């Protein structure tokens, strides 16, 4: 389970998550929708990554509603490995913001964060391939921004 406010669709991350799903790992991502994202320039990248994950067999829920930006950044693996902090899993965070995450092996913390994740998951709505593809087609200008600023997001 991954709750990531700004899902930047970098090739390595998307490929790793899709490979895990294809091996039978239950991969779920909770992230912002175009409406809830307070960084509109990052929305195309998020939607492109969501498309790739959905096509690869991952489950994705999107937080909806303007002004309801999700801001958490954590992952829980096997209920006991926890990764959390302020890093957005992008190139910008470590290079320019000195952001980092902690990796902790603790089943109690993992279970607490899974409960928190389930609450957010239930409040969000499933992303669908038709919806995501339609959004990407309707916003081609944002792809231009992504092409030039991808490694700074």
Give your account of this protein's structure.
With about 150 residues, this protein is of the alpha/beta class. Helix content is about 45%, strand content about 20%. The protein has a 7-stranded mixed beta sheet with strand order 6-5-4-1-2-3-7, with helices on both faces. A hairpin with a 3-residue loop joins strand 4 and strand 5. Helix 1 runs parallel beside helix 2 and helix 2 packs antiparallel against helix 5 (about 130-140). The model has no long low-confidence stretch (mean pLDDT about 85).
Q: Any descriptors?
A:
6 helices; 20% strand; 7 strands; seven-stranded mixed beta sheet; 153 residues; alpha/beta
- Poorly predicted tracts of residues: none
**Residue share in helix:** 40-55%
Helix and strand pattern = EHEHEEEHEHEHH
What is the number of E strands? 7
Question: Looking at the structure, what is the overall shape?
Answer: globular
The portion of residues forming beta strands comes to 15-25%
Summarize the biggest pleated sheet: 7 strands, mixed
Sum this structure up briefly.
The chain contains six helices and seven strands. It has helices spanning 11-22, 43-55, 92-96, 107-123, 129-138, 140-149, and strands spanning 2-4, 28-32, 59-63, 73-77, 81-85, 101-105, 125-126.
Present the secondary structure layout.
Elements: E1 2-4, H1 11-22, E2 28-32, H2 43-55, E3 59-63, E4 73-77, E5 81-85, H3 92-96, E6 101-105, H4 107-123, E7 125-126, H5 129-138, H6 140-149
Parallel strand pairs: 1-2, 2-3
Antiparallel strand pairs: 1-4, 3-7, 4-5, 5-6
Helix pairs in contact: 1-2, 2-5
